[in-house]
């Protein structure tokens, strides 16, 4: 589990809350409810800090498509560079100098 996803692990606190409802005093229940509420608020604050959460799903998809297109363009340029005469000449001259 990643560090971020561990921040959203609610089962332990819910189990503690249920246990306090069934087996403990009113003060323990109040403390457990407060701890649960604090955890939910903490999760909400964390969600608001994540990049892109202020964008609608369609805007996120549009941004994703733009980034994927940019990635493809960079891959094409890299392949073009790898196949370029200049690179081959440079590698050849480097190999000749090492011999």
- Rg: 27 Å
The helix/strand order is: HHHHH
Estimated structural class: mainly alpha
Query: What's the number of extended β-strand segments?
Result: 0
Instruction: Specify the biggest β-sheet.
Output: none
What is the 3D form? elongated
N- to C-terminal distance: 51 Å
Beta-strand portion reads under 5%
Q: List low-pLDDT spans.
A: none
**Overall average residue pLDDT:** 87
Q: How many helices does DSSP assign?
A: 5
* Helix percentage range: over 70%
Characterize the structure shown:
By secondary structure, the protein is mainly alpha-helical. It has helices spanning 3-6, 11-23, 26-49, 57-82, 85-98. α2 (11-23) packs antiparallel against α3. This is Mediator of RNA polymerase II transcription subunit 9. GO terms for molecular function: transcription coregulator activity. Belongs to the Mediator complex subunit 9 family. InterPro entries: Med9 (IPR011425).
Write the layout of secondary structure elements.
Layout (H helix, E strand, L loop, with lengths): L2 H4 L4 H13 L2 H24 L7 H26 L2 H14 L1
Helix pairs in contact: 2-3
């Amino acid at each position: 589990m990643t560090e971020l996803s561990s921040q959203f692990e609610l089962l332990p606190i819910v189990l503690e809350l249920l246990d306090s409802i069934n087996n403990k005093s009113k003060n323990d229940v109040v403390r457990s409810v407060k701890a649960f509420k604090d955890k939910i608020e903490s999760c909400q604050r964390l969600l608001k800090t994540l990049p892109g959460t202020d964008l609608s799903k369609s805007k996120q998809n549009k941004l994703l498509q733009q980034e994927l297109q940019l990635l493809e363009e960079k891959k094409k340029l890299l392949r073009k560079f790898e196949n370029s005469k200049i690179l081959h000449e440079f590698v050849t001259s480097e190999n000749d100098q090492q011999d």
